[in-house]
Amino acid sequence: QTVLQGIILLPLRLISITFILLLAWLSASIATSCQPGTGFLPLEGWRRRMVQTTLSGLTRTAYFVMGFQVKVKGKVASLSEAPIFVAAPHSSFFDGIICALTGMPSIVSRAENLSTPVFGTILRSLQPVVVSRQDHDSRKNTVAEITRRALSRGQWPQVI
């Protein structure tokens, strides 16, 4: 019986996750289309709300489809309380749960991830702090960018 459930559930889960991923890509594409200064200027208004609500909901749905149910105890710190949110040891795909539960904050990501098909578009909509591994001043530039965003008084989303 367990094998039969797996044979039925696996394709359904794969199809559902693919559909959710395509919806996330579409949402991210719409939110970032015709956006001047992509990466240098924060998303505002409907674009920012669209990324926060749609991608957060789709990410939660994807984890639910995969069989994960997450309950939050306590209250997530707001942007004004904590402009920088630390999650460690960020070594697995479970970091997506943290992003979904905290309203899709900006993340720190290597520059190569932005060129990945589908995921790069979604990542770009999160307005990441981009780290270039070829740049010798990358660490200093990353710290400066995180500091600039943290001191922006709410113009940029939280940085995780």
TrEMBL record:
Sample GO molecular function, one term: 1-acylglycerophosphocholine O-acyltransferase activity
Annotated TM spans: 7-26
Highest taxon in the source lineage: Eukaryota
Boundaries of every Phospholipid/glycerol acyltransferase domain copy: 70-156
Keyword NAD among record annotations: no
UniProt KW keywords: Acyltransferase, Lipid metabolism, Membrane, Transferase, Transmembrane, Transmembrane helix
InterPro entries, per database record: Plipid/glycerol_acylTrfase
Protein name: PCAT2 acyltransferase
Signal peptide: none
Organism: Calcarius ornatus
Pfam families according to UniProt: Acyltransferase
Gene responsible for this protein: Lpcat2
SUPFAM superfamilies assigned: Glycerol-3-phosphate (1)-acyltransferase (SSF69593)
Keyword Transferase: yes
Location relative to the cell: Membrane
